[in-house]
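Second attempt. The first submission of DUF3185 family protein had a stray character pasted in from the spreadsheet, which I only caught after the job came back as garbage. Lesson logged: always re-copy from the clean sequence file. Corrected sequence (69 aa) follows.
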Amino acid sequence: MNRTIGIVLIIVGAVMLIWTGFTYTKKEKIVDAGPIQISADRQKNVNWPPYLGGILLVGGIVIVVTAKK
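This time the job returned cleanly.
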């Protein structure tokens, strides 16, 4: 069980080091006055610091190395 968690942490940490975030589009209402509605597409960014991926990667390695076989 611990070994599986460690491997998952290693994979997630490596992915977080390679991709430091992502962008998605959200439709937002600008005007909503009865039958008249105006909306616009807004791009939102989700970013995380690269050191977080490094911490997960190192933590995963430690868990895998110290896990009982």
